[in-house]
Design goal:
The chain has about 130 residues and is an alpha+beta fold. The protein has three helices and seven strands, in the order βββαααββββ. It has one domain (about 5-130). The protein starts with 7 loop residues before the first strand and ends with a strand.
Length: about 130
């Protein structure tokens, strides 16, 4: 994957966050907190570490959801659709955490997130959430 500087970056004034658009597989939108001048350096560095492994980390986060959610009952077995990653928007979040977001066909307005945490240079899913959008 290219460096973050190669991604399209723009500040979303109304939300006070940076949107990094990634065209590679998996296609994703990356949200990073920051100020008008730049995204947070700590979260941007975390994204830089994750970028080469985005496919694997998204798959691992989806597998973590499957440990707790019976998609066969909830969404007729449809696969998880990877929506993107947020850095720094989870209240009380750590600069070692990223929130991977997923949706399911048939789960209207549902958004499922998995917190992936960096521990000793490795990444682990540690928490899941579901919200109604």
């Amino acid at each position: 994957m290219p460096t973050v500087a190669a991604y399209e970056q723009r500040f979303l004034d109304e939300e006070g966050v940076w949107l990094l658009t990634v065209a590679e597989k998996p296609s994703a939108e990356i949200i990073v907190v920051g100020d008008r001048q730049s995204p947070s350096g700590a979260y941007l560095a975390l994204f830089e570490e994750m970028a080469p492994q985005l496919d694997a980390l998204a798959s691992r986060a989806a597998a973590y959801l499957d440990e707790f959610v019976d998609r066969g009952k909830l969404a007729a077995g449809s696969p998880w659709f990877f929506e993107g990653i947020e850095f720094g928007r989870v209240p009380g979040g750590l600069p070692t955490d990223a929130s991977f977001a997923f949706s399911l066909e048939g789960d209207t307005y549902g958004l499922w997130t998995v917190i992936v945490r960096k521990v000793d240079d490795r990444f682990f899913p540690v928490q899941l959430n579901r919200s109604q959008q």
